[in-house]
Design brief:
The chain has 12 helices and 18 strands. By secondary structure, the chain is α+β, with helices and mostly antiparallel strands. Strands 1-2-6-3-7-17 form a 6-stranded mixed β-sheet. A 4-stranded antiparallel β-sheet has the order 11-13-9-14. A 3-stranded antiparallel β-sheet has the order 4-5-18. The longest helix is centred in the first third of the chain and has 26 residues. The chain binds zinc ion (ZN). Zinc ion (ZN) binds next to loops.
Length: about 475
């Protein structure tokens, strides 16, 4: 996942954060500090395995990275370490996932630590300042494909686990997926097949971003997604635009008018019935947003409210494709039919099925000169909204505050992590903590992806503190 740029000020979280005893914080810093050079060496070795999960790449590297993770987990004394995969009903064989377990004792809770060992394709070598699969330290940042997303997430789990007292009663399940970067195609089937092994009270998904360097964050909302295809058909066949144009509007014009009804004059989504969430407490500086988006000078924003609000808690509708006659082969004819694909980002709290209905209702009820308008629903993905006050979230906020020396903020992400909804569906009682190793300069998925090494150490300290505090929170229940 990618992130926003650094804000000039960092507001403090409004939730009261119970402090963690200072001796424990110091001890966690010391034990992570002692292990940290080894953790970075491990991360470098791991990045050297080019585990691109896109199927056009050699999948033996994905197998190798799963083996590498399994070996490391065996070294940590987990009770069981397995490499598992499922094949879906239609015969698609999933990538290898690593599942390692150490059962809870004395009524302590179980924590599931999630990350993924696969990476995005590197793109063109010439766009990188060093080789993508040769981890390179420049200043405070370690560059390489997967150095952040999400091999550092994996190493954070391993490092925190390695520093946890072996006598801790906490149950820990490590689940390292191998196909996140291709959309987790067998995730649901995997959860269904291995639900018992993965069941947990708290799930730590280390695959997101902090707010800025020096500014920790918990990701508490993700937008959902629906897409659909709209076809407008006006004529039985193409006809001469001189002989028939005037009384008859071509299909592209009718479709364009229909698409124009999806937004108000100010660019806000105009489809009734779509949910809008509460304004975030932090905002994205406008200049950074313009630069990150590559917005042309003079281009104006659509919608209202803060930029983070528009990105995180409001719906967005985009036309992501159209089937019309290409300009090169255009002739003076009325085009009989045209098609567009719509992608709708959904605010947290939105039911995707209701959003699809609202979109269909809107599209098919507009005046379209009597054209035949066909709406074909496509994919649906649920948004995510963390509860504000789950105990595990308070524990995480306290751990962040202790590790960074500054209170964390809650952030949203405009994109989707569909498997989070799958996790919640399978384990509705669990609290999901979406944490991460990234910062606004990480450039996950891009050239020169990098990890801020100083921040990464704090991530590991915070995760160790989370595990220690949860062990006690559960023991006291
Ligand atoms: Zn990732």
């Amino acid at each position: 996942m990618t992130a926003h740029k650094t804000p000039s000020t960092l507001p403090t979280s409004s939730a009261p954060v119970p402090a963690i005893p200072q001796e424990r914080v110091e001890a966690a810093r010391a034990s992570i500090g002692a292990a940290f050079a080894g953790a970075l060496d491990d991360l470098c070795a791991f990045v050297r395995i080019p585990s691109v999960s896109q199927r056009s790449f050699d999948q033996s590297h994905v197998e190798a990275s799963a083996e590498w993770v399994a070996d490391k987990l065996r070294g940590l004394g987990m009770e069981s370490v397995e490499i598992l995969r499922v094949t879906t009903a239609d015969g698609y064989e999933g990538a290898p996932a690593v599942v390692a377990r150490r059962p809870a004792r004395e009524g302590a809770p179980t924590v599931l630590l999630y990350a993924h060992h696969d990476v995005q394709p590197p793109g063109r070598d010439e766009d990188w300042d060093s080789q993508p699969f040769e981890p390179t330290l420049r200043g405070e940042r370690l560059f390489g494909r997967g150095a952040a997303d999400d091999k550092a997430g994996v190493i954070a789990h391993l490092t925190a686990l390695g520093a946890l007292d072996p006598a801790s009663p906490l149950g820990v399940t490590v689940f390292i997926e191998g196909e996140e970067e291709v959309g987790s195609p067998t995730f649901q089937a995997f959860l269904a097949a291995h639900a018992e092994k993965l069941r947990a009270d708290v799930i730590v998904v280390a695959d997101s971003s902090n707010w800025k360097v020096g500014g920790p964050a918990l990701t508490t909302s993700l937008r959902g997604l629906v897409d659909a295809t709209v076809e407008v058909r006006v004529l039985e066949h193409a006809v001469h635009s001189g002989m028939f144009g005037g009384p008859v509007l071509d299909a592209v014009t009718v479709l364009s008018r229909l698409l124009a009804t999806l937004h108000d004059a100010d660019g806000s989504v105009a489809v009734p019935g779509l949910v809008v969430g509460a304004e975030p407490t932090v905002d994205y500086p406008e200049a950074d947003f313009r630069a990150d988006a590559g917005l042309l000078p003079g281009a104006q924003f659509a919608g209202t409210g803060s930029l983070t609000g528009r990105l995180w808690v409001k719906p967005a509708i985009s036309v992501i494709g159209m089937d019309v006659t290409p300009v090169e082969v255009a002739s003076n004819t009325l085009i009989p039919a045209a098609r567009a694909k719509l992608s709708v980002r959904l605010a947290p709290g939105q039911d995707p099925a209701l959003a699809m209905q609202a979109l269909e209702q809107h599209v098919t009820s507009q005046y379209s000169f009597g054209a035949v308008v066909t709406f074909v629903p496509g994919e649906r993905g649920k948004p995510f909204q963390a509860p504000r006050d789950a105990e595990a979230m308070r524990v995480a906020r306290a751990a962040f505050a202790a590790a960074w020396g500054t209170d964390p903020v809650d952030i949203g992400v405009g994109g989707s992590i569909p498997f989070i909804a799958d996790l919640l569906e399978s384990f509705p009682q669990a609290t999901i903590l979406v944490t991460g190793v990234e910062d606004p300069d990480t450039r996950a998925h891009g050239a020169n992806e990098s990890l801020h090494v100083g921040e990464f150490e704090k991530v590991c300290v915070a995760e160790l503190l989370i595990l220690q505090q949860l062990a006690e929170a559960g023991g006291a229940r």
